[in-house]
């Protein structure tokens, strides 16, 4: 029954390790940078009929827009997945080449989550098509926009009252509205620092409370 349920949230909000970024990684970063994590998406069963070129063009146009609006900022891309069918690193390299921009750095897919989280911690903001990078942004009170492609991202933001800081990529792609979409709409959705700090506090409170309830049950 509903009254016997305990509200919970991703356990990644329980811990945010402050690790040092290795020198070989840190040397690649400029003082000012933006984190951008796109999602190839055509690997997903819902989007298998989407034209990859059309989706790529959204990302490429957005990369160019960021470079235009933030000419002194580096654009950092952090791969999330690697397997035989999905290789974020290769996809990001492809987007970098197609964009023709020189201010993009693609980190290797061996960069672990603690290092990625600390890279995000020092960024100006995060534009993200992956679930965990949004958690990392909230964990470190960094402004973000979520390119939400399924329920887990929408659900997280809904629970934290942050739904207005997302682009519904599922609706955008499945309703064939890509041609109407303007990359500037992404930046228009950027969360404020005060709102993401509030979400950070709320997420950690939910995670801590649910973890305590679990320990009591054990």
What's the helix count? Answer: 9
Q: How do the helices and strands follow one another from N- to C-terminus?
A: HEHEHEHEHEHEHHH
Rg, Cα atoms, Å: 18 Å
Indicate the multimeric state: single chain
Unreliable sequence segments: none
The main pleated sheet reads as: 6 strands, parallel
Whole-number average pLDDT? 89
The helical percent reads: 40-55%
Widest sheet: strand ordering: 3-2-1-4-5-6
**What's the shape?**
globular
The tally of strands reads 6
**Which structural class should the secondary elements be placed in?**
alpha/beta
- Give the percentage of residues in beta strands: 5-15%
Terminal-residue CA separation: 21 Å
Structure description:
The protein is α/β, with parallel strands linked by helices and 218 residues long. It contains 9 helices and 6 strands; from the N terminus they run αβαβαβαβαβαβααα. It has helices at 23-26, 52-69, 88-99, 113-121, 131-139, 151-159, 169-174, 184-188, 193-217, and strands at residues 33-37, 74-77, 104-106, 126-128, 144-148, 166-168. The chain has a 6-stranded parallel β-sheet with strand order 3-2-1-4-5-6, with helices on both faces. It starts with 22 loop residues before the first helix and ends with a helix.
């Amino acid at each position: 029954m509903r009254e016997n349920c305990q509200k919970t949230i991703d356990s990644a909000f329980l811990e945010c390790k402050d690790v040092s970024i290795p020198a070989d990684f840190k040397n690649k970063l400029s003082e000012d940078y933006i984190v951008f994590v796109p999602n190839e998406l055509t690997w997903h069963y819902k989007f298998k009929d989407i034209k990859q070129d059309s989706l790529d063009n959204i990302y490429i146009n957005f990369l160019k827009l960021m470079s235009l609006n933030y000419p002194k900022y580096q654009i950092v891309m952090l791969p999330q997945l690697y397997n035989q069918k999905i290789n974020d690193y290769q996809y990001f390299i492809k987007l970098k080449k197609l964009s023709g921009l020189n201010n993009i750095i693609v980190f290797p897919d061996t960069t672990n989550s603690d290092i990625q989280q600390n890279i995000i911690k020092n960024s100006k903001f995060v534009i993200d098509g992956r679930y965990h990078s949004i958690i990392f942004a909230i964990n470190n009170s960094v402004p973000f926009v979520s390119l939400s492609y399924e329920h887990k991202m929408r659900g997280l933001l809904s629970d934290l009252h942050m739904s207005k800081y997302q682009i519904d990529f599922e609706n955008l792609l499945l309703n064939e509205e890509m041609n109407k979409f303007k990359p500037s709409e992404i930046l228009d959705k950027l969360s404020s620092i005060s709102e993401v700090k509030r979400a950070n506090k709320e997420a950690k409170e939910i995670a801590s409370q649910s973890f305590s309830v679990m320990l009591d049950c054990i």
